Amino acid sequence: xxxxxxxxxxxxxxxxxxxxxxxxxxxxxxxxxxxxxxxxxxxxxxxxxxxxxxxxxxxxxxxxxxxxxxxxxxxxxxxxxxxxxxxxxxxxxxxxxxxxxxxxxxxxxxxxxxxxxxxxxxxxxxxxxxxxxxxxxxxxxxxxxxxxxxxxxxxxxxxxxxxxxxxxxxxxxxxxxxxxxxxxxxxxxxxxxxxxxxxxxxxxxxxxxxxxxxxxxxxxxxxxxxxxxxxxxxxxxxxxxx
Length: 242
Ligand SMILES: [Zn+2]
Ligand SMILES: [Zn+2]
Hints:
The chain has nine helices and seven strands; from the N terminus they run H-E-E-H-H-E-H-H-E-H-E-H-E-H-E-H. By secondary structure, it is α/β, with parallel strands linked by helices. The radius of gyration is 17 Å and the shape is globular. The protein starts with 5 loop residues before the first helix and ends with a helix. The protein has one domain: Rossmann fold (3-Layer(aba) Sandwich). Bound molecules: zinc ion (ZN) (2 copies). The site of one zinc ion (ZN) has 8 residues, from loops.
C-alpha cells in the first residue's frame, strides 16, 4: 500500500524522497519510514455509514446530514496527524500522496459501487489561499481523482474567512460555517448542463462534520443529488468536543 510507482521512482533520482509523516530522508520507493509506519492509525470497519468512523467512535446520531456517506482512512492521531500538519503548514505537499492512496483504497469499501461524476474539494478563503499559496485539500483531491479516474472540478468557493473550527467548541461549529460557502457561477452551469448528480467531496480533516455538511448542503441546493465525503483524517469522539 505504501510503494511509489515507477515514474515517481525515476523522479526520486532527481528529488530525494522524504517520509510523508516526519520529512526525514527515506528508502527509495517508500512513502512512510519504518519509525512512522506503526503510528498510522487506520479507521477499521465496521464503519458508521453516516460519519465513517468505526461504530464504537461514532458521535453523529441525531445530527442532520446532507452527505450520503463519509469516510476517512486515518484517525487524526500520531503519524497521520504529523503528515497532515507537514502538508498543511510546512509546504510538504508530497504528503498528499499518502492520503490519496489510502483514500482511493477506502472508497469502494466504504461506499460500494457508487459512480462519481466528479471529485471536488473544500475551498479555502482567498485570504488563507494567498498566505499558504496552495489548498492542501485540493492537492489531495486531484491525486484521488487521478487514482479513481474521475474528473476533478472546482465547484465551491469560501466567501470569507472564519475562526478555525478546531478553535471552537463543537456546539459553535455549525454556526461558524453557516453561509460561508457557495457554488461558483461556472460550476452551477456545469452541474446543470452536465447532469452532475453524484459528487465526491474531499477535505483534509473532519471534526464535527460541520464544514462538510455545509458544503454538501450548498451542492444539493444547486442540483447535486448525492454528496459523498472523504477526508484524510478524522477525530474520535473524545477529541470532538474540545
Ligand atoms: Zn517518518
Ligand atoms: Zn457516525
